[in-house]
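Thought: the user wants the 3D structure for the chain below. I'll pass the sequence to the structure tool as-is, report back what it returns, then summarize two notable features.
Action: structure_tool
Action Input:
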Amino acid sequence: MKTYSQKPSEVTRQWYVVDAADERLGRLATTVARYLMGKHKPTYTPHIDGGDNIIVINAEKIATTGNKTLQKRYFKHSGYPGGITSKTLEQRLETDPVGVIEDAIRRMIPDNRLRPGRMLRLKVYSGADHPHEPQQPKALGVDDA
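Observation:
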């Protein structure tokens, strides 16, 4: 019995839509990352990008547990001395709810040459509307994975 190795020409991609309203940020990110990498498929091959396309809607309605909205901080540095700035999760959700979800998912995908292509297949929208109806996406729940 030989080990099956998927080839790039054999990859078939599905479209899924995930409603982020009242979902926990970490649970949502792990589920979406799993589908972007293709780990839910029996044909998963680590060195082939065989994942699916994911649409996340209602990004501004994401939920967290405990006091994470006040205690979790996002840092960035300009590269200059004294150039570090930080924002709480609450501040970041007010200004950029899409970026919060994209960052959480990006950090759950391995940092290798496949990550940029996987992130291009992720579409996050702050409202309930999205322009991908012609692709006929299937509904995907966070607890389905």
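Final Answer: Structure generated. The chain has one domain: 13-144. The longest strand covers residues 15-19.
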